[in-house]
């Protein structure tokens, strides 16, 4: 049996508005005790981590990322060019680098909005088997999009479409869901509206009919797969909710009626504010077209207002950043939480989006998403008190330890972040 891991004297956050100084013991991959300081029973050869002055929280769960995107910040490359022209092996290697960047930033689980021919499901399985160190992954192998829809608009002109790059009509939609299930999908991603950055697209456009969305949801749910709907427009959101999707990604043009429906149905909102903030703050034209950059910057204040209204209405909000290559670099995830606080959440409420609610959305709340005895030891030791100042999570050097599956991977993630990842 491996030795225990004892984290001594940290303020342990268990989901409330405050944290209590305690000792926590990890054995194998589980939290086995949380006790008053000095009372924890451990093996004599336990590894001891001094948590004085630190807060212990669950590892962050980012419910919306695009993993196999460019990972070299010093060599900007458009996501569209990378998606169209990079070889599958190159995509996979960039994806692993991005995963380690996320892990170093305290993100221990990623819900991956997939790119086909990128080996994301295979990477997930290697990590689960212990062959690779990395965050837990939940993967959609590809999106479901209509001809002329948001996903189709991301495919560069002149690039030959592959079978089922698009799906039109209920029959094709059902077949694509089945194909993705056969490829190892953990969930299904559907483009239910236009977007902000795809060429020639408009966010207010709906993309699929209720009949098509209903077929996607029915087929996915029959296979035990939840459905995430990219939906900015009111009509796209309305149709998605009518069809019974499990989450609305972005939700830019929600209104009071739609928020009420989300509360009634228990539908999650994954706001992805970070990508708008990151694009707005980059040098003009450095990663996206000037038009797309203006659109993203102009919409951010509205998106923050929408999150505030959704939170006040009781909509369940799950943490998601839309981290994606050079557009929204991996490793900056915690800024999304600061934006939630800007929208009116308390720091503890913001942290629940990245733990309790994201774990529920991913269907893994029985094992992760909380610091509790019996849960898997996916933990983040942070210098300072994020419950009084959420921005400590974004400060360089504030993340003292990252533990996943009971293993302290801090040294590994720091090596990759500081040496190998300019």
Automatic annotation (TrEMBL):
InterPro entries: Amidohydro-rel, Metal-dep_hydrolase_composite, Metal_Hydrolase, Metallo-dep_Hydrolase, OTAase-like. It comes from the Bacteria. Residues 55-406 form the Amidohydrolase-related domain. Transmembrane segments: none annotated. This is Imidazolonepropionase-like amidohydrolase. It comes from Nesterenkonia lutea.
């Amino acid at each position: 049996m491996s030795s225990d891991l004892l984290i001594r004297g940290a303020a342990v956050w268990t989901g409330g508005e405050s944290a209590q100084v305690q000792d926590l013991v990890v054995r194998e991959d589980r939290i086995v005790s949380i006790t008053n300081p000095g009372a924890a029973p451990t093996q004599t050869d336990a590894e001891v981590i001094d948590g004085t002055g630190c807060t212990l929280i669950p590892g962050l769960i980012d419910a919306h990322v695009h993993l196999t995107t460019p990972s070299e910040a010093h060599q900007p490359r458009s996501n569209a060019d990378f998606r169209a022209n990079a070889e599958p092996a190159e995509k996979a290697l960039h994806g692993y680098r991005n995963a380690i960047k996320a892990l170093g930033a305290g993100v221990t689980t990623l819900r991956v909005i997939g790119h086909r021919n990128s080996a994301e499901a295979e990477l997930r399985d290697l990590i689960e088997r212990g062959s690779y160190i990395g965050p837990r992954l939940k993967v959609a192998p590809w999106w479901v999009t209509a001809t002329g829809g948001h996903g189709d608009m991301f495919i560069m002109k002149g690039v030959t479409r592959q079978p089922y790059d698009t799906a039109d009509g209920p029959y094709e939609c059902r077949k694509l869901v089945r194909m993705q299930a056969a490829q190892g999908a953990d969930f299904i991603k559907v483009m239910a509206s236009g977007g902000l950055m795809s060429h020639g697209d408009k966010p207010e456009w709906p993309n699929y009919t209720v009949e098509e969305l209903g077929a996607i949801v029915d087929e996915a749910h029959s296979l035990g797969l939840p459905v995430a709907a990219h939906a900015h427009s009111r009509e796209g959101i309305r149709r998605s909710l009518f069809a019974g999707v499990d989450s609305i990604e972005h939700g830019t043009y929600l209104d009071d009626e739609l928020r009420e429906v989300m509360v009634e149905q228990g539908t999650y909102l994954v706001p992805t504010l970070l990508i708008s903030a990151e694009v707005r703050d980059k040098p003009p034209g450095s990663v996206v077209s000037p038009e797309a950059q203006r659109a993203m910057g102009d919409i951010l204040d509205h998106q923050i207002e929408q999150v505030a209204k959704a939170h006040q209405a009781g909509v369940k909000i799950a943490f998601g950043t839309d981290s994606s290559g050079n557009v929204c670099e991996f490793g900056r995830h915690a800024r999304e939480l600061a934006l939630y606080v800007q929208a009116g959440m308390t720091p503890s409420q913001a942290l629940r989006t990245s733990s309790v609610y994201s774990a529920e959305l991913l269907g893994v709340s029985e094992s992760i998403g909380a610091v509790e005895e019996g849960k898997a030891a996916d933990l983040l030791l942070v210098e300072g008190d994020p419950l009084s100042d959420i921005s400590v999570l974004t400060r360089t050097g504030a993340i003292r330890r990252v533990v996943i599956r009971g293993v302290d991977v801090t040294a590994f993630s720091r090596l990759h972040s500081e040496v190998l990842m300019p």
